[in-house]
Amino acid sequence: MQFINYLDTLDKQLFLFLNGLHCSLLDFVMWQVSQKLIWVPLYLVLVWFIIRERKWKSIATIVLLVVMILISDQISDFIKNAVLRPRPSHNPQFEGIIHILKDYRGGACGFVSSHAANTFALAIFTSMFFQRTWISIGIFIWAILVSYSRIYLGVHYPGDVMGGMLVGLASGIFIFYIENWVYTRLCMLKLKSKKD
Question: 125 phi and psi, to 5 degrees?
Fold first, then answer.
């Protein structure tokens, strides 16, 4: 119990430090980074690359990507409702102390971060799927940036983000191996139909 309290205190101190690193330029950038619709062009580019890579078999990959995001999102929501840890923006202890933009406070509970879960799920899947260093570096920088924006905006502790990251990584790896299995089966079916 003492160790849990120590981790909680450390998490709150780290949150206050990271949330305190703000300026007007970062306010604008982090607000935009945290919005979901701004990343639609990135998702469309990824889908285009997947289609280029897998041709007609990409349909299964894209469906599984949607399933992956649903899984990571639902698991993070389930954990939020089970743990019931208030977000820093809803913690009376931090009232008037933390940096909050446009009075945005998020839902009541924050552990784990759905933004972190979803972005890290997509990042690990993309990294394993394409296996290109520049794509892996770029997509993980994106996931880290989106996750940090949640701390910057005052709606998640670093521990919430770390928890979300683990949920996302597990979901992404799980779906990657399922996608790989489906792709192999589709290739085998195509070969079999050519022989017949």
Answer: -60, -50
Q: What is the mean pLDDT of the segment spanning 71-81? A: 96
Tokens of 55: 């041709």
Query: Mean pLDDT score of the chain, rounded to an integer?
Result: 92
Segments making up each domain of the chain, as ranges: 2-195
Q: Who's near 141: CB < 8 A, 6+ residues apart?
A: none
Residues with Cβ within 8 Å of residue 127, at least 6 apart in sequence: 135, 136, 139, 140
| Pair of tokens at residue 104 | 């945005």
Which CATH number is correct for 2-195, 1.10.10, 1.20.144, 2.60.200, 1.10.8? 1.20.144
Please answer whether residues 21 and 161 qualify as being in contact, where contact means their C-beta atoms are separated by less than 8 angstroms. no
Angle between helices 58-83 and 40-54 (to 10 degrees): 140
